[in-house]
Design a protein that fits this description.
Length: about 250
């Protein structure tokens, strides 16, 4: 890889459906630390958590990780990692950044490598991931669908649109968008400086701001959708998944 990526994990305590989510215990470790460990498994040289609150930073440091404090009032994770990147790397040693959501503790580490590779190989401004959408999620507006123009072979492509609707219409698979992004540094800086766009506000999907501004988003296909922890029920599923992994690999 010629790009020099850093992984940044935005984290804040003020989750409406699961308050204190980053510090929720999963098999003896805070959830944000579990995500940090996934990035470490992926082999990235530098990983840090961009924290909205000091208690998150303390937990990350207690586990041996790197944490950086950011403004608690940022409207999005993208704004949070942009501040963290500017503070953590003023000399611009890193020219790309992976925005890894802190509520994906069951994410496969290979997926983090895949999104960085998609950015490198495509030359796009941004890269993200998709997986086949389950039948029960096709009409679910909480599951974001990606409309993609695929390259030959169907492994990578270019995002045309993201929507909460069931799209594209007609026979064929739908694609479940996985909210992990890799940005070229200049693209992240441009993105967070843009005002929210009309389609972004209508669909409540931040990535549409980039498309409306003419930025390119590369897409890589992965095999499955990781469990996102948004509710107490999701948390119990994540705990069960780690329990099974512990039983399989004592």
């Amino acid at each position: 890889m010629t790009l020099r990526p850093i992984v940044l994990i935005p984290a804040r305590m003020a989750s409406t459906r699961l308050p204190g989510k980053p510090l929720a215990d999963i098999a003896g470790r805070p959830m944000v630390v579990r995500v940090l460990e996934k990035a470490a498994e992926a082999g990235f040289r530098r990983i840090a958590v961009a924290c909205a609150e000091e208690e998150i930073a303390a937990a990350v440091r207690a586990a041996g990780g790197e944490a950086i404090a950011t403004d608690p009032d940022h409207p999005s994770g993208s704004d949070r990692i942009a501040e963290a990147l500017a503070r953590i790397d003023p000399d611009r040693a890193y020219d790309a950044v992976v925005n890894l959501q802190g509520d994906l503790p069951t994410l496969e580490s290979q997926a983090i490598r895949d999104v960085a590779a998609a950015l490198e190989e495509s030359g796009a401004d941004i890269a993200t991931l998709v997986a086949p959408c389950a039948a029960e999620d096709r009409a679910n507006p909480n599951v974001v669908k990606a409309v993609v123009a695929w390259n030959e072979g169907g492994r990578t492509g270019r995002a045309l649109y993201f929507t909460r609707a069931s799209a594209p219409w007609g026979e064929g698979e739908l694609l479940h968008h996985i909210g992990i992004y890799a940005y070229r540094r200049a693209a992240l800086e441009r993105f967070v400086a843009l005002p929210p766009s009309p389609l972004e506000k209508r669909e409540k999907l931040e990535q549409l701001r980039a498309l409306e501004a003419g930025m390119t988003i590369a897409v890589a296909r992965v095999g499955g959708v990781p469990l996102g922890v948004d509710t107490p029920e999701d948390l119990e599923k994540a705990r069960a998944a780690f329990g099974r992994a512990t039983e399989t690999h004592p």
